[in-house]
């Protein structure tokens, strides 16, 4: 990663202080991803200790605890995006890290499922560290290297998602399900301090009356349909990755027939997509800078759809982990490609609002994914979740091919 960055810098000058800002935000995004994945794969097991719930109730409460964060996030993200374009993205990163440190730490003291759901709702209203860090770096990076930087920022959250479930599984198995929340809260406080004192943003505040309305910005875009398509693709991609997350530990428990170290194996299954994405991200980033993000996005969607077919029919936790690892390789081509399209096709003055709108669609996707996973698994079974998710990816892939094809044929 460092060698790639130095090679890029040798061709084009980055803003002063870029190194420190990049490393700080990368580490902050890593901690955010690790903290999230250290706690959420085990939320259903944590909730099961707070009362006597039926199978259906446990699935629904797990989905609520998981998805309510994204409901509040979807509602308030446009407001934060507007403020980011006027005041800067650094302030938004500080806000997200500080509030998340408090809410996540307090979840560790929860005595009822509604305590968890309430704090998760509050957390969502003030979250968004990774998206704002990405938007900040989009504004600090020469556009000829946007693909690599967007992929590098994605690896931060992905690497965190890889380490988090393994660490969370070990800690939960040894000390209980509350300890990971306390550790995550402390780490997010350190992220708040690092962002406050080490990040440098080259940003000139814009008065509210001088900002272009978002409607005018869309009218001035060369192809606004592509931007809208990226929003909906973000929603589908996040939904596909989140559909199994709230109930993954319960699914692993059923595959293992309630024998063995379920928390550890669930952590491995949750982490394997992150490992695949981490391995592929750098290569995918350089490929995007060479052939364009749209080709990479189409290919990634097709591969992801194909991989959901064998996952539907697996009967082993370790087999599921293997297929999810391959899915992680495909995922390396999805979110970074979407963010690169947005970076290249949108004026810098609107980055905050566009990325926040994209975050709202991420949040909606997370809610839909958690609802789909919880309801379908409660009414039918866990494999049916993969079947429905794969079908949704297929429909999205067809839509993207239709939208991109005219421009592709023009280039040919």
Write the layout of secondary structure elements.
Elements: H1 2-11, H2 18-39, H3 43-48, H4 55-87, H5 89-107, H6 113-126, H7 129-140, H8 146-175, H9 179-198, H10 214-220, H11 224-242, H12 248-255, H13 262-291, H14 293-312, H15 317-331, H16 335-345, H17 351-379, H18 382-411
Subcellular location: Cell membrane
Organism: Limosilactobacillus panis
Pfam families: MFS_1
Give a short account of the largest sheet. none
CATH homologous superfamily classification: MFS general substrate transporter like domains
Shape summary: globular
How many domains make up the coordinates?
Answer: 1
Structure classification? mainly alpha
Radius of gyration: 20 Å
- Secondary-structure element series: HHHHHHHHHHHHHHHHHH
Mean pLDDT reading? 81
DSSP summary: helix tally? 18
- Helix amount: over 70%
Amount of beta strand: under 5%
Annotation, overall tally of beta strands: 0
**Span from first to last CA?**
33 Å
- Oligomer description: single chain
CATH class: Mainly Alpha
Subcellular location: Cell membrane
InterPro entries: MFS (IPR011701), MFS_dom (IPR020846), MFS_trans_sf (IPR036259)
Keywords: Cell membrane, Membrane, Transmembrane, Transmembrane helix, Transport
Domain Major facilitator superfamily (MFS) profile: 21-408
């Amino acid at each position: 990663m460092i060698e790639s960055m130095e090679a890029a810098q040798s061709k084009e000058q980055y803003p002063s202080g870029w190194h420190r800002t990049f490393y700080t935000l990368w580490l902050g995004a890593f901690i955010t991803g690790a903290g999230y994945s250290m706690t959420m794969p085990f939320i259903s097991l944590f909730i099961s200790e707070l009362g006597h719930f039926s199978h259906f109730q446990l699935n629904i409460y797990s989905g609520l605890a998981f998805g309510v964060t994204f409901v509040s996030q979807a509602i308030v993200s446009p407001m934060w995006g507007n403020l980011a374009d006027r005041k800067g993205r650094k302030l938004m990163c500080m806000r997200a890290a500080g509030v998340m440190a408090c809410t996540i730490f307090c979840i560790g003291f929860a005595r009822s499922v509604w305590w968890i759901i309430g704090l998760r709702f509050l957390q969502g209203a003030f979250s968004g560290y990774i998206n704002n860090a990405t938007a900040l770096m989009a504004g600090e990076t020469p556009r000829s290297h946007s693909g690599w930087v967007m992929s590098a920022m994605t690896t931060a959250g992905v690497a965190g998602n890889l380490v988090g479930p393994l660490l969370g599984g070990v800690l939960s198995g040894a000390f209980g399900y509350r300890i990971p929340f306390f550790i995550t809260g402390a780490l997010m406080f350190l992220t708040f301090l690092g962002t406050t004192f080490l990040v440098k943003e080259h940003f000139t505040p814009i008065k509210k009356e001088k900002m272009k309305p978002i409607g005018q910005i869309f009218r001035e875009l060369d192809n606004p349909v592509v931007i809208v398509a990226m929003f909906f693709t973000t929603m589908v991609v996040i939904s596909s990755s989140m559909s199994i997350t709230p109930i993954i530990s319960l699914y692993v428990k059923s595959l293992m027939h309630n024998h063995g170290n379920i928390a550890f194996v669930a952590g491995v299954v949750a982490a394997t997509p992150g490992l695949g994405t981490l391995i592929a991200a750098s290569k995918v980033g350089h490929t995007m800078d060479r052939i364009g993000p749209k080709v990479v996005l189409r290919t990634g969607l097709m591969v992801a759809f194909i991989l959901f077919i064998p996952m539907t029919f697996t009967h082993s936790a370790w087999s599921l982990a293997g297929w999810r690892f391959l899915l992680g390789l495909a995922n390396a081509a999805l979110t970074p490609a979407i963010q690169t399209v947005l970076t290249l096709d949108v004026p810098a003055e609107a980055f905050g609002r566009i990325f926040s709108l994209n975050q709202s669609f991420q949040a909606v996707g997370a809610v839909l994914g958690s609802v789909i996973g919880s309801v379908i698994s409660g009414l039918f079974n866990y494999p049916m979740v993969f079947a429905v998710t794969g079908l949704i990816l297929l429909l999205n892939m067809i839509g993207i091919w239709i939208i991109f094809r005219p421009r592709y044929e023009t280039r040919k």
